[in-house]
Amino acid sequence: MYRILNKVNSPEDVKKLNIEELNELASDIREGLFNRLTKIGGHFGPNFGMVEAEIAMHYVFSSPYDKFVFDVSHQSYPHKMLTGRKLGYIDDNHFSEDSGYTNPDESEHDLFNVGHTSTSISLATGLAKARDNLGGCENVIAVIGDGALSGGEALEGLNVAASEINSNLIIILNDNQQSISETHGGIYKNLKKLRETNGSYENNMFKAIGLDYIYEENGNDIASMINVLKKVKDINHPIVVHINTKKGKGYKLAEDNKENWHWTMPFDRKTGKPIFSYEGEDYTSIAREYILNKAKLDEKFMVITPNMPGSFNLNIDDRKELGEKFVDVGIAEEQAIAMASGAAKRGAHPLVITNTTFMQRCYDQISHDVCINNSPVTILLNYSSFDGLTDVTHLGIFGISIFSNIPNLLLLCPTSKNELLDVLEWSINQEKHPVMILMPGNDVTERNTLTNFDNINKYKLEQTGKNVAIIALGDFYQMGEELSKKINNELGFLPTLINPLYASGIDNILLDELLKEHKLVITLEDGILDGGFGEKIASYYGDSDIKVKNFGLKKKFYDRYNPLELLKEEGMDTESIINYIKENI
Amino acid sequence: MYRILNKVNSPEDVKKLNIEELNELASDIREGLFNRLTKIGGHFGPNFGMVEAEIAMHYVFSSPYDKFVFDVSHQSYPHKMLTGRKLGYIDDNHFSEDSGYTNPDESEHDLFNVGHTSTSISLATGLAKARDNLGGCENVIAVIGDGALSGGEALEGLNVAASEINSNLIIILNDNQQSISETHGGIYKNLKKLRETNGSYENNMFKAIGLDYIYEENGNDIASMINVLKKVKDINHPIVVHINTKKGKGYKLAEDNKENWHWTMPFDRKTGKPIFSYEGEDYTSIAREYILNKAKLDEKFMVITPNMPGSFNLNIDDRKELGEKFVDVGIAEEQAIAMASGAAKRGAHPLVITNTTFMQRCYDQISHDVCINNSPVTILLNYSSFDGLTDVTHLGIFGISIFSNIPNLLLLCPTSKNELLDVLEWSINQEKHPVMILMPGNDVTERNTLTNFDNINKYKLEQTGKNVAIIALGDFYQMGEELSKKINNELGFLPTLINPLYASGIDNILLDELLKEHKLVITLEDGILDGGFGEKIASYYGDSDIKVKNFGLKKKFYDRYNPLELLKEEGMDTESIINYIKENI
Asked: Residue B345's closest CA among A429, A130, A562?
């Protein structure tokens, strides 16, 4: 086990191996991947498919002198194992030392913290241009693929590489015939033709815009990959190296079901079954069920997603059932939002679904294509909570701060199953407002709600009390309830409790009412404070006699934290808040 | 004069004309354009180049049944004249009725308020998809060109049109061989080859990804345009209609200098000279001069722009002088920012320049490609003020709200010439922080400043007073000074006056100090309040005894307002603020 990998401590060691040893190294790396991924999960298919290519990259080039930029960087695990970080894979005690993405804090071989797609070519053009201006002759190598080429930033990067870089720039296009789900877009038709003709198809999208191009059929063969990379090493102009690989290579189940094995929870290697299974209802399945039902009832309904049906568990059968009402635009958030605006203008009821972290990729489209035009588009975002995804590149904690400040956009944070379903139904049926809904991130609860939300910015007064008013937004409402009980128990009075729902506006009637019987307003929100909900309340009350304390996270790129510990550290657990109230009331 | 145009009150009237009349109509339209543009300015070249094409569009198609989507929509003036809005051009009393962009409030022939580029194809895919789902057989026509094709959203749109739309969608590509400045990018190499071969060049970027394609050499000939549009009308799949036009067609000066005549101030038709000329120093010329000097002194310095050298008056000679230190990536903001991050990582000192309104097109790139990586990129934005650009699609008033809440990003708002130059110099030389600088939008002033800004978030205490503290950000600092004098005169005490500079952070030491001698803190900022600077101050002081009043604009898409009147309406003129203070102190 790990016979060759044990000898490899840096890329220099890779260069000493012969082809048999390199092939054995590939097996060792896959064993290392299995060891980590069966136990803690992570990106499976992208890494299994790129083992040979990354070994060849380190064999031919000399990192960190030569610069590798991995797109998304969820396929960089083999590279990590070859650059001094194999223990994060083969030794269970070291798993936590390595993030699931490239990370300059871990190694000089990683240039960027990357987790969103379609950035590698653009980043590489900057490395290349600065090299040329400052002097240097290292190779700059961008790795892209796995569906990321359809993102606007990548296409802008190709366009600029083709005209503004007149020196070395190597773009390794990892064509595994798959994105997160299946690929969508005309460029994949071109890649298919190129594969079918061994790269010789005359109508070549890369050559069309002036890029050099070379094709390698055997992207999972180390000798072939070494051969093609040697050909392009030290080349004096940009070139696309189109390599054909198999996503999930080396694990039959993953090869056969690429979508399910893009990313995996911990699993049993023999059966492929997840080790932990979650019983009971969750918000994702509630939303999925709503979508499937709505499609049956509303002929105007459409679902548009930038390749994230999986975020709402819409599997291949669901998508088939949705038929023409389902549009996957591939990884292309800008297109998803603008398309939804166009569809709404033509009378459809579009719902855009993805993860919160990816929606910031189309800020301008939400603001202009949708909100200036007041297009009734509904956007439903998953993983909006601090305790969803904790990788620094996938945080959901910025959603309220980013989107609560765009004019015309209603940002709704439902607090329960009923409220989620009610706001979805209301939003998709109405034709006046752009609406964004952040999915609750905590345990599913049921409670009565309003069912008509036309009274914009009308908060729900859940409990009338005195002295202290708790305005608890979205999935922090449950914390508000808990706090309310504690105040009653420990301080002997019932506080007022409010479910604001609207993160994007102020209920000035209710807030003015609070002035009478309250000394302190507490706001709770699941996100950073800066630009968020609480600051709006603080500003509103700024020159009044009531005091306001905002509880939320710092403006900070948190990384791989323990959610409950984070709440304590930031003084946001109910214990800390109660103590604050005791001291300040 | 206007013999034919006088008869045209709707697209139906265009259809009744014969070819001679249509040609005369083109002349009439150009006369109308001259009448408006010589007197109030606007987009020149894009409109003069599209007169014939838009006449042909209305001759062949039936708007509003058929749907036109104009990209950027700064080329839609001929369309506006043909759809009931000619008075906005030929009658000086009606100029103000028409915006410079498509606007659904003006006419049912305009589908979207558009002002940022590269959106038309994506919007059109939505119109087409909804038409197909809901039933209908109108033509959907996206007009794009003038450099907009290099934007990621447009390329995403092409990619999706080529695979997800299996029905009518007509993309008119207006190839005028120009962008705002010259074009940049490999796609323009392909368009050139296609023009040179009358559309027959085999390596066609559109066909490569599966789009149908047709070329029209004579885009400024009505008969030819009618002919080609008739061919594609009611087509049952997406097609690109590549038309060759001349930007500025019909005015020799504009044809010869396309960049200068992209947009114009009021001018004398005979000489082409501007009617009003501004004497004296402005911040734009100060920044331009700094850039040119810096390039001579710092070999690591680079300027990167998404086709907006004109925003800082960097003319063609300046760009030549800057040489390899100047990179225009074309209209591609995402690429500009990511490239800058890559360049910074390789040791360069990159400065990205454009207008504030366009920077929101790369929110994700600023957050991830730059800020998570702490890349020392400097971003300098023009037109950040409420009294810069007042079109709803080009407002600068959202900059502070959007960018002050991204972790690691220092958002600096200098208040004077000295401070602008000092922060620029400091920012470009340091290698620790991503920095964004908002250009002041008011009259140039000179004042002493700090010259070392390493003490992050350290506000400048300009005057120590009592009772009231004024924290006046950026180009509202002068208003703060005026307010201070008035308070002294009318209320008989000297208030404290602070120039915070850092819009993105809190100087807690100074703010705590203020608690001693002050009852009221006034914040002034040149932008919307929601998510902005003042709310951070209000939140900080939320549970203290000091009162805070934030002055700023509403979260609203203001459109074509009078800046001074707006200040009054929003209670932000010094008169209103003084009255507020009198009532609240």
From this structure: A130
Which of A406, A542, A557 minimises the CB distance to B372? A557
CB–CB contact A368 B115 (8 Å): yes
- Whose tokens are 């000798």? That residue is A223
Task: Tell me the pLDDT tens digit for each residue of A100-147.
Answer: 999 999 999 999 999 999 999 999 999 999 999 999 999 999 999 989
- What backbone phi and psi angles, to 5 degrees, belong to B270? -70, -45
Q: Is the pLDDT of residue B106 over 90?
A: yes
pTM exceeds cut of 0.90:
yes
CA B573 vs CA A433, B445, B483, B533: distances in Å:
32, 20, 9, 18
pLDDT score of A451 more than 90: no
| Model ipTM value | 0.97
pLDDT of B278 reads 75
CA–CA distance from A540 to each of A514, A543, B539 (Å)?
Answer: 12, 8, 10
Alpha carbons B299 and B227: distance in angstroms, whole number: 55
Average pLDDT over residues B190-203: 97
Tell me if the domain spanning B5-264 has CATH number 3.40.50.970. yes
* pLDDT score for B181: 82
The strand order across the sheet containing B67-70 reads: B67-70, B140-145, B169-175, B238-244, B212-216
Give Cα B10 to chain centroid, integer Å.
31
Angle between helices B222-232 and B19-40 (to 10 degrees): 110
Query: Tens digit of pLDDT for each residue in B146-168?
Result: 899 999 999 999 999 999 999 99
Across the range B75-89, mean pLDDT stands at 98
Structure tokens at A34: 């299995």
pLDDT tens-digit series, residues A275-297: 988 778 899 999 999 999 999 99
CB spacing of A368 vs B549 below 8 angstroms: no
A332 contacts in chain B (CB < 8 Å): 156, 159-160
CB B554 within 8 Å of CB B93: no
Give contacts of B 499-528 with A, CB under 8 A. 520, 528
- Among candidates A130, A205, A365 on the partner chain, residue whose Cβ is nearest the Cβ of B348: A130
Give the closest of B111, B364, B369 to A123, CB-based: B369
Question: Considering only residues 188 to 207 of chain B, which have any Cβ-Cβ distance to chain A shorter than 8 Å?
Answer: 188-190, 202-205, 207
Q: Does B343 touch chain A (CB under 8 A)?
A: yes
Q: Which of residues 403-432 of B touch A (CB under 8 A)?
A: 404-408
How is residue B485 written in tokens?
């004098």
- Minimum Cα–Cα distance from B304: chain A residue: A126
Q: Do B123 and A341 touch (CB under 8 A)?
A: yes
Q: Where are chain B's structural domains?
A: 5-264, 283-438, 460-584
Residue with the two structure tokens 């790990």: A2
| Contact across the interface for B530 and A405, Cβ inside 8 Å | yes
Q: Output the CATH code of domain A460-584.
A: 3.40.50.920
H helix or E strand, kind and range, residue A215: strand A212-216
User: Quick check: do A283-438 and A460-584 share a fold?
Assistant: yes
pLDDT at A332 over 80: yes
Is B339's CB within 8 Å of A122's CB? yes
Out of B112, B162, B360, the one facing A186 most closely (by C-beta) is: B162
pLDDT tops 90 at residue A446: yes
pLDDT at A417 over 90: yes
Range A5-259 has CATH code 3.40.50.970: yes
The CATH code that applies to domain B283-438 is 3.40.50.970
CA distance B551 to B538: 11
What part of B 98-127 touches A (C-beta under 8 Å)? 104, 111-116, 119, 122-127
> Are residues B187 and A159, on separate chains, in Cβ contact within 8 Å?
yes
Q: Residue B554's closest chain A neighbor by CA? A: A407
